[in-house]
Write a structure and sequence with these properties.
With 98 residues, the chain is of the alpha+beta class. It is built from two helices and eight strands, in the order αβββββββαβ.
Length: 98
């Protein structure tokens, strides 16, 4: 679900990216309003940046990462394309938004 040009042009998916859980696989992808595969519901934020390409520059199919689901977050400090919006903030009700 993550694409190189959109989500990780420098090879890393940035921390703070809003994640949605893909219903069919149980894996996480980028939160996308209007989707119908489960990613339309925010399920957390990527806790820290994760490398998404290998040493040869090829996309890695699956990467392991931590998901941030509760705590304090200053939305102004998230990456520009994090995907956070009012709907995501509502769904992530265990996060206190500063």
């Amino acid at each position: 679900k993550f694409t190189k040009n959109t989500h990780f042009p420098n090879g890393y998916i940035p921390s703070g990216t809003v994640l949605g859980k893909i219903t069919a696989t149980g894996l996480y992808g980028p939160y996308t309003t209007g989707a119908s595969d489960g990613t339309q519901t925010a399920a957390g934020l990527l806790f820290s940046s994760v490398r998404a390409v290998d040493a040869n520059g090829n996309n890695i199919a699956k990467v392991g990462a931590a998901r941030f689901v509760h705590g304090l977050v200053n939305a102004a400090k998230l990456p520009a394309n994090s995907g956070v919006d009012a709907t995501a903030k509502t769904a992530l009700n265990q996060i206190t938004w500063l």
